[in-house]
Amino acid sequence: MTSISYCEDASTWLLETPSTCYGILLVGSNRLPVNLHWGRKLGHGSLKAMAQAGDLVANTRLSWAEEDRLEYTGWGGMRYDEPSLKVDFPDGGRSIEWRHSDSRVEDEDGSSVLVLTLRDLVYPLTAELCYRVFADCDVIERWVRLSNTSDEGIFVARQSLSANWWVPVSPTWRLTYLHGAWGAEAQLAEVALGGVKTVLESRRGTTSHEAQPFFALDTGDAGEDHGQLWSGQLAWSGSWKIVAERTAAGYVHVSGGWNDFDAPLELRPGADLVLPVFAGLYTDGGFGAMSRAWHSYELAHVLARPTRRLRSPSFPQAKGTTPGPAAPLASGQALPALRPVLYNSWEATAFDVTEEGQARLAELAAGIGCELFVVDDGWFVGRNNDHAGLGDWRVDPAKFPRGLSSLIDRVKSLGMGFGIWVEPEMVNPESELYREHPDWAFHFPGRSRTQKRNQLVLNFARQEVAEWAYRTIDELLSQNDISFVKWDMNRHFSEPGWPDEVGRNPERAWVEHTANLYRVLDRLRSAHPGVDFESCSGGGGRVDIGILSRVQQVWTSDNTDAWDRVAIQEGFSYAHAPIAMMAWVTDSPNPLTGRRLPLSYRFHVAMSGSLGIGGNLNEWSGAELDEARELVARYKAARHVVQHGLLYRLASTRQGDLGAVQFVSRDGQEVVVLAWTGVRRYGPWPLRLRLKALERTASYRDKLSGEVRSGADLIDLGLALPPGQDWVSLFAHLERQA
Ligand code: DGJ
User: Taking a C-beta distance cutoff of 8 angstroms, is the pair 21, 42 a contact?
Assistant: First the structure.
């Protein structure tokens, strides 16, 4: 049964999700699609009444007027707000005038897609606006396919955004977003939307640490557990932008997609361009409900898993055209497999990697219960520091005289899987690859090639580079029993030139680099279905739902200081599922911040995501290893609740010196609570956590202490934190009594 319907009488399309709906009106002689509603459930009757009331569509007879709420605005006429699309035509024309030509609905594996086709009145340019709704979640995926249907003539897209989301009319709007920096990713911030544009963006060639392609709008009064939110996320891991804007007519819209900066895209005759998904979500129930809905969507439809069917673009592309990414995200599968407890040797050994050294760490890691052992940077030829080696992906015989397989056998005999670090998009000038192919790195002729961490970015838009990367990693995975790849990307783009393509739209490299990265990952996953992937970019510089549909997890931040992580992880949890959030326990004092924190505290922070260990276990005392073993065991007993459950934020360090989260299993039978204090002032007054989402009349037993308490008791009186002043933490695992 489709959840998309058309009312002939009212000219309205109604898209229904389990708890929300989205209404579109086809207006005027050109039948232009205009947004009527995005929010709580309504029927066609209400949409018709809204259309007749006229205030939302009063000006749409002037199809180019700024005052309308067009679903996809082409730049032209007296329109000064952010256009969805801006195109140059071969005869010098640079504006767009749409007419709606047809609509269709396609039903696919538990989801339905509405396709509204717009054609330019004069030029053979078509935009198919696609909207996917699911039977099991309220996220609406939107994307666009642009086509040049002419036999000759190149169209140049100066700006081609994926979707334009209109929110209801309100005098106030607040934008919540995620910004940051290296070591300080996913910081929450908010701004009142005034009469100026607010632009969130990356011009760095990747998602970036500085901003994440996520937004949440509310009318200023939403809290953790109450209030309506309109939020969105872009499925793109290259340069992007999201523009939130109040138009002169007082309407607020958010448009987003590829960043247009320095990136005109040629659309050749017969070419299609599939733009990335910009997913939107309306929720009622505060930031908590919003996050849980995003988590459920990621679990069910985004996060990669070995058996997931890869969905290539559903629309064929003409040969030799600018390729878009595989647009639709939907996988329509059950929950992904639970993540193993991982050990990563980076903070322990850095570049000082040897078979013996790694084997010693592997024994200790297995001894405390780790299930996957990952050798990070430093295993390949020439890689004794960050000055050389990137590009030469051959095992260093000085470090591994018997090849990798000898270490892999030892790791596997300890009962763990084996993982490895790679950074295929990068090259050190000090490498054989660069000496052979200096042109493979992005550069402008005659200009400096700016290095960061002594490395340059390889131009993945070049097919031979993408092919080389695929073959290199495919060989590594075919020759070794590897079950996990950490795919790193440690610097952003500079001088993104492609001299061989001058005159042939070399700027398309901004987009094609990422499109080819996706293709390489998709091919590798298809050829090696037993291998899991982690996306890393100098920590959390590449975290978005585009990459998440190709990897099982992401590295959240190079900052492993547990107290700093509390804030980073809170921001992460706004948009992304805890299962995807890799969180390591590392040494004390922390190598980055120098802060000393108890081992249990460091564990309790990392246990709110996918647990990893990243400390130098050689330096841990016997007592610490025993404690770690016990905490890993506790995590394993609770991880299904953390990784597959529903997250409720109980306290935020943005409001004080206490952070806390609660996870509830989807069947309501188990509850995990984690809490952490900072440096407390004015005395160690008792702290209690009042739990959420429990059955008041049910009884819950603490699996550690055996204490049984009623739901009402836990909700109204709460769980007491252990006594103490600074750096106190709590882990509790409760189960509901029959
Ligand atoms: C940056 C990553 O975030 C670290 O975890 C580590 O893999 C280094 N790169 C290795 O160069």
Answer: yes
